[in-house]
Amino acid sequence: MKGALNIFYFGLAAAIAFVAAVEEEELTEMQKKVLGLSLQEYHKKEHVINAFKVSSIQSITETVFSQGTFVHLQLLLEQTSCRKHQWQKKDCKILRRARRLNCVTCYKIEEESLEVVSSYMDCIPEQLLQTDREEGRREKCNEVKQTRETGLGLPGIFSFSRSRH
Question: In the record, which residues are listed under signal peptide (predicted)?
Answer without folding.
Answer: 1-21
